[in-house]
Design brief:
Shape: globular
CATH class: Alpha Beta
Radius of gyration: 18 Å
Helix content: 40-55%
CATH architecture: 2-Layer Sandwich
Number of helices: 8
CATH topology: Beta Polymerase, domain 2
Distance between the termini: 33 Å
Amino acid sequence: MNTSNQTYKELAIPHFKEVFDIIDGVMIKHETPYYLIGASAIALELLKSGVKPSRGTKDIDFAIMITSMTEYEKLSETLISVGFNKVKAPWTFYSERYNVAIDILPFGEIEEHDTIQFNKRHSDLHVLGFKEVLENPGEVSIEDKIVNIPPLPGMVVLKLVSWSDRPEDRENDLTDILRIIEHYFEHNFDDYSSRISQRYYMTL
């Protein structure tokens, strides 16, 4: 089943379409490579196998590949101009109109020892694994949009990193990891069967 046959309604994430359209436009304007990560990416990938989302979320997470904090600040200004407000964490933006928070997590040349230095108060955003996981992203479509996401094993890695960083605030990460494990074999059954068949015929 291809996600192009799915709808935003089936994705069951409130205002995902509206927010995603805005983010897509901002990233295109700034010519910034971006990736959908987190629970939304997991839900979108599993929809390909007909697995419905298990929980709703008002948080939508994106990873962006940039080179400097100046570049990030310019992108932030554009997000503010289209209706998002900065909140406590400098990588989180909130839309009052849609009651949705988004995390915009930078990685790439901007990193220093797998950490992003925002300011003296917030200098501990760890992005360990982002470059490796997103080096070969998957591509999924929903209605008229195409988005890059991590492969499911990569999502597990990112969830483990975020949970280990702040386990007291990230209990949903473990739930998401268990959901991936629960559906991974079923989701990849055709690919797994193909590999087994190839190995069988190679031994004949």
